[in-house]
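User: Quick sanity check before I run a bigger batch. Here is a single chain. Can you write out its predicted 3D structure?
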Amino acid sequence: MTTKPKRQKSAMAVPQPDPDGFTEIVALIATSQQNAYRAVNTALIDLYWQVGEYISRKIEAAQWGSGTVENLARFIAHSHPGLRGFSRPNLFRMKQFYEAYRDEAIVSALLRQLPWTHHLIILGQSKRPEEREFYVRMAAKERWSSRQLERQFNAALFERVVLSPPKVSAVVRQMHPEAVDVFRDAYNVEFLGLPREHTENDLHRALLNRMKDFLLELGRDFCFIGSEFPVQVGTRDFALDLLFFHRGLNCLVAFELKVQRFEPEHLGKLTFYLEALDRDVRKPHEQPSIGVLLCASKEDKVVEYALSRTLSPALIAEYQTALPDRKLLQAKLHEFYMQDSREGDAE
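Assistant: Done. Predicted structure follows.
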């Protein structure tokens, strides 16, 4: 009996040039898949909105009690076996979803851009309407995953933005009015795992190793250009810690790192770098560069004095190596809104 020769395994195909434009077909497929996902998500959010509206109106009109929703869930399970997502708790979440946003026409257009999981996180963790709207807008703008959205809640982003707006110079406000919505007063870098005592080299190296996470913390439109970016002035060579480009602001953004408290003299070096960038690096179609001093800590009054007379488009921010105490910030935010309410009543 003759045996068949063993078939040799073919070597892995080496990628070849694409003269026939096959990559364009792959791109079309990917785009179509993304469009299909968005269409399905839009239809699903619309369905949940309509179901929530129906249940809400029935209960408000005293035509249904809470027990009726339980019966509805059983009816759906019986008439559509295997259909998931319409249990009693989920039906009440759809009702909550509708009631939370029915009077907010401005936000309603953004709701379809987020998956249902995102809405459950926002509804479950937001304490007030302003917070819900903030996270809906930010999640849609930054295209956060559900994990990233959870992290921003844990980092108390809303509370920090309201209580501590970014500290920017008057020049930044004049040149880039929208920059106030781009930058933050503090950036959380707990993902770096830095020890309590660390050097600027430790911080610099950790940021480079976790640049993807740092870009997510900075915001979607930031693009990393380089580390220790060379700047030559006269016969001397200098190195800027981190250089980015912001697509929305259309400008270079220089980051200088300080592992100690902010001191006014730090602004001088940053101003020097910004002048060099605008003279020798910035392209004609780009806006003037912005500088960020990222410090371990800062005293707001010192920052205010330092920025009040400077002609440099700079801002002062701090990095935080641990997530803030969210409950404490929520308590401060409650006091802030109470004070604002009292001042409004007095007027």
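The longest strand covers residues 222-233.

User: Great, the batch can go ahead then.
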